[in-house]
Give the backbone structure.
Amino acid sequence: MSNAKEKKINSKKSESSESSEIQVSIDKSFNKRFNKLIKIVEKENPDTSVILAREFRYPLRQTPVEIAISETRKLNLLEEFILRAGTEFNPPPTVKELSKVLGLDTVFVQNTITNLVNSNHIKIDDSKLINLTPQGKECYQKGIILETPEHQTIYAITEPLEKKISFYSQTLEIETLDLPNLDDIIPLQRRIPKLSNLKVNKVQDIIRESELEISENEDEKMVTHMKVTGKSQALWKSVSVLVLKHQTLDKYIIQVRRDKYIFQKISDLLTAMENIVDSLR
């Protein structure tokens, strides 16, 4: 056999041996749980192979908040006229002007207006003009009145991977995980939504999405206020971070997963980061 052929054969053996060593090295880093997950991932992505898999922890934030919940009822005729006057009259009327238009005793009208002020539907400015609050405008459009609110403590859970907020009626269990922190790879604190930015109508929407019952008949109650009442605590959760190598496009794809669920937004963000594969090793 010529020297050239011997060199070519030896070169192929070397490449094959090197490839085998790399594969063995990678496989040794995968526990049984990862091997099962890798089969799922590679089946979902037939043009890729998983070259790295690691488990990380990341913090959710659990914060106690107090919400005010009010029962609703239909507007009576006088309430409807007062709110309508505050909406359509320009300038808005005074109590005396409104009493004269309605042909009712000023004391009777004043009592109704006082109730609407106390329940935050209208406000009286320095000129004694009737003005609707944002809550009053919403209620007028819906044809309802909110009664005196009840207060209830619930718990807001902020999820940085999806920039999502959920509500729970009870605290979730706090546990510690002996895993590397994903926050060391990508700053997750900036992705935690601020509770102070939430509008009350959004709070009510999230409560319903969280399947948290605020009353026996939720259609008859509305959330009118929310405030933070205590310090937030970290709830550590684990995720798997996998590096996929595309066989034909010669590029890396990062997946952040919990079993079959993919955290798509954070996965896309990590995939777009330069040198991220080196940071994950």
Summary: DSSP finds nine helices and ten strands in the chain.
